[in-house]
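Kindly inspect this chain:
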Amino acid sequence: MIVRDLTPADLPAVTALLGQLGYELADHEVRHRLEHLMKTPDHAARVADIDGKVVGLLHVFERPALEKPREAVVQSLVVDAAQRARGVGAALMRDAEAWARERGLASVALYTRVDREAARAFYERIGYRLSATSHLLRRDL
């Protein structure tokens, strides 16, 4: 397995992985979002590749803040259901941590939904701890 930068050729696999995460999106929507993300400084999109097949996706970015030090935030992490519990997610998280260290960041944070118990357990197994609970409020414009 290798972890590498996401390329436009990975679009179908990325769309399928996002679907497994619960985000059913059309290819053109994912393409549009990826084009924007890849031009945005301080973001990285990486994939786990086994024998030429994309089996995992990571999106990490640097978040500056006034009330705390800059940190890396894992926005998306998804591993193909057929490849889970085989080290792919852990490899992608190590990649996110290396990316953060290269940028001089001291921490990596992420959010996971409360109903994703298996995801929370995975993050705890690799050393992440609950830091806070919060409510997400949104207003559509």
